[in-house]
Amino acid sequence: MKILDENYFDLIMNNVLLPLYDIDGSITDADSVTYINERHSVIHLPATDNICALGSMPYHIFPSLYEATSPISMRASGIQTLQDNPYLDLRGQGVLVGVIDTGIDYTHPAFRNPDNSTRLVSIWDQTEQSGSPPKDFTFGTEYKAETINKALSSETPESVVPISDSGGHGTSVASIIAGSPSITANFSGVVPKAELVIVKLKEAKRNIKNIFCVPNDVICYMESDIMLGVSYVYSVAQSLQRPVVICIALGSSQGGHDGHGALSSYLDSLSQLPWTGVSISAGNEGIAGRHYFGTAGTAPFQDDVELLAGAGDTEFALEIWSSYSRLSIEILAPNHESTQQIFPSILDCRRLQFIFHECEIWINNIIFEQETGDQLILIRFKKMLPGIWTIRIRNLENEAFSFHAWLPAGSMLTNNTYFLKSDPDTTITSPGNSYHSLTVTAYDQRVGKIIQASGRGYTRNGHIKPDLAAPGYRVPCALPQNRYGNTTGSGAASAFAAGAIAMILEWSVARGNYTSITGNDINRLLTRGARHNQDIFYPNNVWGFGELEVNKVFEQLAMF
Question: Does the keyword Heme apply (predicted)?
């Protein structure tokens, strides 16, 4: 099966362009194309070890690589007020919660009803090939509630449903949204009566990691598999005719940070549909030192970007994006060797080597990246020489210009690699830059201050993001092996906000108060009901429209 075969790239393709890649008629079979939605499919083409495959084929069709965004006070956001109100009692009844993540410990009490039956509608385990895949999907194994309950009544549940969540991220996110109450653990999810649809993502293919110079031991996930997971959750909701909120507590610093990209576009389209909400983590790149904003307003119209490469980071990629200029690039190594000046082209890929050290560099200076129309300079390093590197950017038009540069997010780099003059703004990870989904940053609910690591807006093209800040400091959660703990970060905040969306879906759809409501409508209700600090101007690039306060939403609705 090509979607599981390391000998094939999984490339995200606009459906109207598929015939261009079917020159000899070899991709017409179902094993060569995996349908996602009406706009996109995954095409499986023979892979190569040549990093310049990205160059002979365009940047935007290679799936970006995503990592988990490390995931309370229940009163901090008005959640408990709505749970305790006997006239509202909003706990997610009739609403589905979709979590596309690292898996789930389905045996945990947080995901069981009082009679010990499961609260999971289904699980799609993309990593397990021993069973039957979901309808209209070609790989993985689907476990429905009947099978999960059979596992729960077995002395060896893993022999019936062999799914696990060793890292615990998916378990924690799902429990924050919809975990069953535990008096002994002093824990409850936001909507403990909602039902869950879970997708366990398979790890990214090594061939895509190689294309983007990501070490093989880094656990990350491909954009294409996340999109298929979203498609699965939405298909389950459609078949059951139930409202659904989808939580994406994953992030990537690849792409233009402008709302383009296949996953961002897909989530945008779903957010505009009735009964469908989307909550996305803003990421935790705010103070990681991995974003640089460069500008030059006077001659010679060039800017030197200083990058400190740590000894532990031997291979990684760096992206430079600019909208209106025509930029060249030259790289100076710590030992003062330098490359030649690389000028912009369309699909050129240059492999560069040095005389006195073994570092290799691949540079794609793409004058217009096909999806955005903007210039992208993609730099990929292998056998990196530690020390301070200088990346010299010149504007060939000899006029004022600006640009952004991003290093990889999360654990793809150690904390020892960063820009010496980094900028904390424009650090929201994808798909958090999408226009119509709810992008959520994290604040410390104990003191009412933003968590400094949280991603900041705006988007590269000036769109207001994040939308809201939600509690994200030491949020209580379930952990694998029947444990409870807490977690910090924007992943936890996005889960908290997903629970708030589920409350509104219960009130509007399940209770029949506003049955045509869309995810975008819900986002506007939440942003208008946000809590403000009188000393801060809103919206802004740190807090968005303010702090999540779902109780205020219903106070406003009561006035209509």
Answer: no
